[in-house]
Amino acid sequence: MTQRRIPYLILAPGLILLILFLVLPLISTIFPTFFNGGFTLSNYTSFFLDEYNFSIFWRTLKISLIATLICVVLGVPTAYYISQSPKKWRGLLMSITLFPLLTNSVVRSFAWITILGQDGILNNALMSMGVLSKPLTLLYTEFAIIIGSVYLFLPLMVITLVGILENIDAEIMEAAETLGANRLIAFVKVILPLSVPGIIVGSILVFTGSMTAYTTPQLLGGNRNIMLATFLYQSATALGNWQGASVIALIMIVATLIVMKLFNWVAGRMDKRGEINA
Amino acid sequence: MSYVELNDIRVSYDNKTDILKDLNLSIEKGELVSLLGPSGCGKTTTLRVIAGLIEPNDGEFLVDNQNLTKVPVHKREFGMVFQSYALFPHLTIKENVAFGLKLRKEKKNSIDKKVKDILEITGLEALSDRYPKQLSGGQRQRVALARALVIEPKLLLLDEPLSNLDAKLRLSMRIEIKRIQSQLGITSVFVTHDQEECFSISDKVAVMNKGVIEQFDTPEEIYKNPKTEFVARFIGFENFFDLTPTEDWKYKAVDGTVFLSNRDWEPGKQTGTIRPDDIEIAANTTQQTTNMVSGVIKVRTFLGKSYQYEVETSIGTLIANKADDVVYQVGDAVTLSIPAHKLIIV
Amino acid sequence: MRKNISLKIFAGLVFAFLLVPLFIIIVTSFGTNSTIQFPIQGFTLDWYSKVFNNESFMDSFLLSLQVAFIATLLALVIGVPAAYSLARHKVFGRNWIKSFFLSPTIVPGLVVGYSMYQFIVIKFQFPIIQGLLLGHFLICLPYIIRVVGSTIEQLDFSIEEVSWTLGCTKLQTFIKVVLPNITSGIFASFMLAFINSFNNIPVSQFLSGPGVSMLPTSLMNYIEYNYDPSVSALSVILMLGTIVLMFVIEKTLGLASIS
Lengths: 278, 346, 259
What we know:
Largest interface: A-C, 78 and 80 residues
Helix content of chain A: over 70%
CATH class of the largest domain in chain C: Mainly Alpha
Shape of chain A: globular
Radius of gyration of chain C: 22 Å
CATH topology of the largest domain in chain C: MetI-like fold
CATH superfamily of the largest domain in chain C: MetI-like
Oligomer: heterotrimer
CATH architecture of the largest domain in chain C: Orthogonal Bundle
Number of strands of chain C: 0
Order of helices and strands of chain C: HHHHHHHHHHHH
CATH topology of chain A: MetI-like fold
Strand order of the largest sheet of chain A: 1-2
Strand content of chain A: under 5%
Strand content of chain C: under 5%
Number of helices of chain C: 12
Order of helices and strands of chain A: HEEHHHHHHHHHHHH
Number of helices of chain A: 13
Distance between the termini of chain A: 39 Å
Distance between the termini of chain C: 30 Å
Helix content of chain C: over 70%
């Protein structure tokens, strides 16, 4: 055995397991969707031409996009606040952010069921204050899925951004202020552009996460607000439509890849710092 | 009333220890004043108080008879050059320099003109479309300076601007800064811990220690007549010995040797100090007169153009430098004379 | 000193948004009512004993622990040497192989579970439990490759060269010099992989059957038909587990190492 082969022998078990249990299963489920006698794209064209299917696809994109935007808006100032706090506080604030992230997603969705339900905390509070006379329908709506997704993925956004913002020289903000920018303008003109790489990475995580999440739409969306992941599960189990489930599976994979490429492309366009960050 | 006035400025982060203790400083229009001192002496804090980046606990800060103590940073209209340069990495050189002007909502051609002019003065025209990452340290330094100057600031603040440059560049940049500063006649405050740099560039120097200004004078005055032991030590006086003032405006050392000094006689001052270069060293003469002590050479160090001798004398160990025309050996008995016009009493 | 009140309030609200829902769960788990109420009327620990007496919860809890532990261990055994090889050896197509090792994070979890169910359980008639283990192995592997890989890259290569000059073989060097210096990375990746496997739903969703149900799946099924504080109680128990884990990580490595 020559020395040169050793690395490949070390890598082989992992590669073989990945091929056997990730690649082959994917191929074997997705490959048949392209064949109906001969090669065909009809399964995919008919998926998108079907109004119901397309509405699910569209809802998935819309909800993911809104959740991502909200995570950016909430995440950037919060991450900036964490990155600017003294060291001893930063650890605590990071723990507060990490805690929900490491808590089971069923638990996190369940929390919102108790808050948003017909007989939930929010409705009860608003009615006892006399703001409402009858409960609002909040649970099992797109709104509930959005809140649930934001709740699920905001910590990821914040943690990604803190990593970037911590590395921005504090004097840069001060320099902007000495040049006549108040805090808000300095933040918008300096900190925000510099955190773009973090926003992009965070957005990829939030967007693809919301797009493929199963728990949140299942628990908070109900039967009327199906998203791609719940649609896949429903097609495969309740409807026994394996072909349809496989079509959705590929659409989810491709959509994920496209979103990643798209965000990275945007990042490349916006990050005009002359050189790539070392 | 001076152009810039700091009156009884006190800064404390925890209200127990003061970073600045009732600091007073007056700067005339057009002057370049340096704040000199070791790290932790409060010089950067003073600069940041002036800039508005730190709000003092007590005291007031005036420019041109206007009280600016409570005015926020972005309304003070001072230019500041940071130690790290703090250039905006996402903006080109031109955009970096135009940043302050754009915030002032000036007209586009006026901005373009001003940016072009300042880039010319600082020799950066050719680099205007590059990004900070593509520039060398000295070029970034110039951009930081241009960005601070282009807003025509009432005050230019420089926080150790040369400390990140190599020795050669440091030398040329400080000449450059002085040239631009006097060309534009802009009142400037310069923070540094390097005394040579500070003396060469400043009209006046404030030597700081532990939150107070120990001496505020012209560089020549500080170099020749340090007022306190701290200032003397900081600017290169290495020999210190105890003296007792006597009735006849003289001083007496511990071994009884009498010293005269050309400096004003003050009963409160009891330490004599002299630079190693100013001590004259000669072969031992038995005849002892005033301002002379004898001793034995303990250590000899070759410094290149001269030798340094550590001499043990009856008033303590003294260090003397002497050119290599006459060379003494370790163990030689020598006489040191301390000229009255070079002896400083602090 | 200069403070920014509006930023502080904004961040405070976001932290409240993150914590209040979990706080509500904790409170409701002690309520005496048979449905979830907030604020609670009376105080009881009954829901906790109900959780511990619920066989399906307890069985799936044990199963989850076992699956997560075995899958993480398997991922470590295969992933640590692979991560080392990718960091240190000249391997043809290194970046491609690395992306391939990380690819299970790119494929949506539900799709992973679905295709494995189709391929392994239906086509090749493997027992579900084996599919479940392999699926969770796939979840764990990228964490090991990423965290251990970056730890090795930060390790000074010359200490390995020194070890060779002192007469150690490459394998001895890996065991005696490299491994002791990357224990923190291995530990961090173990924790991350374990907690992600334990919490995972999408992959397990398809890979469950009679007697084979992971805790999050059981909990989810329970929620679909019940709305009582025993769910809160179980949630609190899971949160306690998270807190213990975070505490252990903080004490050994610092939480910063996993974020």
